[in-house]
Amino acid sequence: MAEVAIAYQFLVELANIHPDVGFTVSQLLKASLWACGCLIVCGLFLGPLGILVGGITGSCVAYAKSSSFKPLWMVLGSLNESERRRLGQKIADLCKERGIDIVSTSASLLPVELGRQLVRDALKYSRKT
Question: Which of 88, 93, 97 is nearest to 118 (CA)?
Fold first, then answer.
């Protein structure tokens, strides 16, 4: 359970880095609450079948209620070079504070080239400090 709290706190801090990133993260969290809420309620009343029904229903409700937001890779693509570097520095700082090894996790988490560039910028900054 502590891992969920740490992940949530990391997302909140990530949302504060850039307004567009913040909007994407906040919309994602709202949709997650709808999806998880339906899954939990249906699971409580219907058992394992409720998990299936609640997951599908919750996802549909979350989709219907979500406003239009850009996925993170599109937000990163719209940033200019200096904004990407600043974002990379801030992500490196957050990872360092949390003890997250960004070298080992970056390959699996960021398949998009812009994301990889962001991690490279974060690594350059973390090695300087």
Answer: 88
Is the separation of the CB atoms in 42 and 57 below 8 Å?
yes
Tokens of 97: 């504070």
* Reported pTM: 0.61
d(CA 40, CA 53): 10
Query: Taking a C-beta distance cutoff of 8 angstroms, is the pair 42, 51 a contact?
Result: yes
Greater confidence (30 vs 122) lies with 30
Widest CA span in the chain: 54
Residue type, 25: V
Q: Is 47 left (phi over 0), alpha (psi -120 to 50) or beta?
A: left
